[in-house]
Amino acid sequence: MELYTGELLFGTHENLEHLALMEKSLGRMSSKILSQATGTPRDKYLVRDRYGEWRLNWPAGAQSASSERHVRNQVPLEKMVDPQHAVFAEFVGRLLTFDKNTRPTAKQALNHRFLKERNLPE
């Protein structure tokens, strides 16, 4: 995706902002995944919502207004590509699936439509 756009996908050096950028582009991380965090990372980056579910401590945990603005301006993965390249964005999105149990293996990824179709738009 970075070669396609010419930009870093998650351009930051701050951990919580990085996680927030990921959610903005790829969708929310499930509470199930977040609940696996323990110790300092959980205490530093996560909070429980009013239903007791884990979520990122964002934007409350943002280090600055510019950090909040940077995340707010991040676009979803599918909007980073021209419409005729949607299959590419879908492929990248599958590779970046948060849940390792549903993320494709390398062998499965090789069977994705993006790599199989010969007449994809340029």
UniProtKB/TrEMBL annotation:
Q: What keywords are annotated for this sequence in UniProt?
A: ATP-binding, Kinase, Nucleotide-binding, Serine/threonine-protein kinase, Transferase
Source superkingdom? Eukaryota
Q: What is this protein called?
A: Protein kinase domain-containing protein
Instruction: Tell me the organism.
Output: Durusdinium trenchii
